[in-house]
Design goal:
40% of the residues lie in helices and 18% in strands. It is an alpha/beta fold. 42% of the residues are buried.
Length: 225
């Protein structure tokens, strides 16, 4: 099990099903967690900050400055904040494209930009992309495009930071087994979905010393079944 003792990790989207599972596992492995989300703070242990528009650069900078003041220099950033929306161009127009860009890609851009000045030496950035970004299905163009942008950002930023000790990687999950997804797709075979715990384990590895030579990777996480 990877030891992250004393290392400060910011997790965005930390109050959702995936974010909370990831943050809890990282805390179990010793990380000092700063949990940030647009949603209101639901309470609980550790440092938490809710009501933050992560797509807004200034809001993101203020939130991360506060996290560093309270928790110390950044070692890791896990960009989980995001959303899913389906809409055909004929029915939805271009607004879903703006929403998916802002929610799924601009949040990663803002958070990464805000965090970079606070890294001291080696560090890790892990982004959440999507397997679906490789080929968009009908009505999924906006979502797939935004997640494809996350993949390209991951690759580009990894090259920009090469040699600095900061690695940048992304995981590409399939459908994630969350209560919301089960409610939306009740006839699906849930056992074939990626689990939050499984995704959290991959993220913990990418944050660890063992992954120091992995950067610019886009790692599929599709479940074991």
């Amino acid at each position: 099990m990877q030891d992250l003792s004393g290392r400060m990790v910011i997790v965005t989207g930390a109050f959702g099903a995936l974010g909370s599972s990831v943050a809890d596992m990282l805390a179990e492995r010793g990380a000092k967690l700063a949990r940030v989300d647009r949603a209101d703070n639901p309470g609980g242990p550790g440092w938490r900050l809710g009501g933050i528009d992560l797509a807004d650069e200034d809001s993101c900078k203020r939130a991360f400055r506060k996290a560093v003041e309270d928790c110390g220099p950044v070692y890791g950033l896990v960009n989980i904040a995001g959303a899913f929306e389906m809409a055909s161009l004929a029915e939805g127009g271009i607004d879903p494209w703006d929403r998916m860009y802002r929610t799924n890609l601009r949040t990663v851009l803002s958070a990464s930009s805000a965090a970079l000045p606070y890294f001291k030496g080696a560090g890790r950035i892990v982004n959440i992309g999507a397997a679906a970004a490789a080929k968009a299905s009908a009505s999924m163009g906006a979502y797939a495009a935004s997640k494809s942008g996350v993949a390209r950002l991951t690759e580009s930023l990894a090259e920009e930071l090469r040699g600095s000790g900061i690695t940048v990687n992304a995981i590409l999950p399939t459908i994630i087994d969350t209560p919301a997804n089960r409610a939306a797709m009740p006839q699906s075979e849930f056992a074939k979905w990626a689990t939050p715990a499984g995704i959290a384990r991959v993220i913990a590895f990418l944050l660890s010393d063992e992954a120091s030579e992995v950067t610019g990777a886009l790692i599929p996480v599709s479940g074991a079944n």
